[in-house]
Amino acid sequence: MQAEPLNPAHIAHLQHLFRRHSPLIHCMTNDVVQTFTANVLLAIGASPAMVIDPQEASPVCRHRRCAAD
Questions:
Q1: Which domain holds residue 32?
Q2: For this UniProt entry, which segments traverse the membrane (predicted)?
Q3: pLDDT by residue (tens digit) across 12-38?
Q4: For a disulfide at 41, which of 16, 24, 26, 48, Cβ 3.0-4.6 Å?
């Protein structure tokens, strides 16, 4: 099975959809990279949730826009 080449028009369409829906991305990272990770996600149109308490993570993950597993 070969990978298909990237199609710039398809990538642009996916980026448009991503920004339009602004998914909530649940992140559990260490303190060193937390700001960097949040800024990258904001730059691509996501809504980062930097939740570090496992007790708070469950309600965040149940949010309808959350993209966490």
A1: 22-69
A2: none
A3: 998 898 889 888 888 888 899 999 999
A4: 48
Q: Is residue 69 pLDDT above 50, yes or no?
A: no
Answer yes or no: is 4 within a domain: no
Q: Are 51 and 38 in contact (CB under 8 A)?
A: no
Contacts 24+ apart (CB under 8 A), 27-34: 27/51, 28/52, 28/57
In angstroms, what CA-CA distances link 32 with 18, 59, 62? 27, 25, 27
- With H, G, I as helix, E, B as strand and everything else as coil, classify residue 28: coil
Q: Does residue 69 form part of some domain?
A: yes
Radius of gyration for the chain, computed over Cα atoms and rounded to the nearest angstrom: 15
